[in-house]
């Protein structure tokens, strides 16, 4: 725990010194929120009087998918700089180097999500959810962030270029567009609807939306947690195998 805390502090300092990264991770989802709310919102029939409420879960997931890409980039930079070899020569827990990057992703994405929610409140986002529902939303977003971050770790360890370390996130950012994040899946053509309803983002979005509106979550919450937990366990296991091979 002590080693991981030190590595977390080091990684967070790197993030705070990279203002362009903070702006990119936060501004892009906010711009997307404003775009759908004020440009496309009038033409989209989502079956709700408050389209900002409908948008919020999907925009948060896009922000997280975009944010974790920088974990892969920072990890790749560390690998190339040779700092890993210096760390491994010290009497520290080797996995703490990875956990420092992972927990930094969790912290930075939490800040980004909080800023997006604040902007959402300014343009009409409202929630009747109580403290327990909000805690459940935060928990789901945290597990989702951890799952994608460990995927980013795999990309960062295996990449041969900085662009390759971050490129894995592009399909992840695209997934919310083929889900219930922006329009109901019932409006989609058959094959697209089948994909949208059976991919992880839809169940996660539906769960968060139901929690924020104090509606029954049904089976969506279990499907969402199963997806997140499954990706997290597999990605963590594979990332550790790759890491051990790299430092062997």
UniProtKB/TrEMBL annotation:
Bilayer-spanning residue ranges: 21-40, 55-76, 97-125, 131-153, 165-183, 221-243
Provide this UniProt record's keywords sorted from A to Z.
Answer: Antibiotic resistance, Cell membrane, Membrane, Transmembrane, Transmembrane helix, Transport
Can the keyword Thylakoid be found in this entry's annotation?
no
Domain spans labelled ABC transmembrane type-2? 20-246
What is this protein called in UniProt?
A: Transport permease protein
The similarity comment for this entry is: Belongs to the ABC-2 integral membrane protein family.
Q: Where in the cell is it found?
A: Cell membrane; Membrane
Membrane topology designation? Multi-pass membrane protein
The UniProt entry, under InterPro entries, shows: ABC2_TM (IPR013525), ABC2_TM_bact-type (IPR047817), ABC_2_transport (IPR000412), Nod_factor_ABC_transporter (IPR051784)
């Amino acid at each position: 725990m002590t080693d991981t805390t030190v590595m977390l502090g080091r990684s967070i300092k790197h993030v705070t010194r990279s203002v362009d990264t903070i702006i990119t991770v936060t501004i892009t989802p906010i711009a997307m929120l404003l775009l759908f709310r004020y440009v496309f919102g009038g033409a989209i029939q989502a079956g709700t009087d408050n389209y900002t409420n409908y948008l919020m879960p999907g925009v948060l997931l896009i922000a997280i998918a975009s944010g974790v890409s920088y974990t892969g980039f920072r990890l790749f930079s560390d690998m190339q700089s040779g700092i890993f070899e210096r760390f491994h020569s010290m009497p520290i827990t080797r996995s703490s180097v990875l956990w420092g990057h992972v927990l930094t992703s969790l912290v930075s994405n939490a800040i980004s999500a909080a800023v997006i929610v604040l902007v959402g409140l300014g343009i009409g986002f409202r929630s009747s959810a109580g403290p327990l529902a909000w805690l459940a939303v935060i928990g789901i977003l945290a597990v989702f962030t951890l799952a994608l971050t460990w995927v980013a770790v795999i990309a960062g360890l295996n990449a041969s270029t900085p662009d390759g370390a971050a490129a894995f996130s592009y399909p992840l950012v695209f997934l919310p567009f083929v889900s219930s994040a922006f329009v109901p899946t019932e409006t989609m053509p058959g094959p697209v609807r089948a994909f949208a309803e059976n991919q992880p983002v839809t169940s996660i979005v539906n769960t968060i939306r139901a929690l924020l509106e104090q509606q029954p979550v049904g089976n969506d919450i279990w499907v969402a947690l199963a997806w997140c937990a499954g990706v997290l366990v597999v990605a963590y296991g594979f990332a550790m195998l790759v890491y051990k091979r790299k430092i062997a």
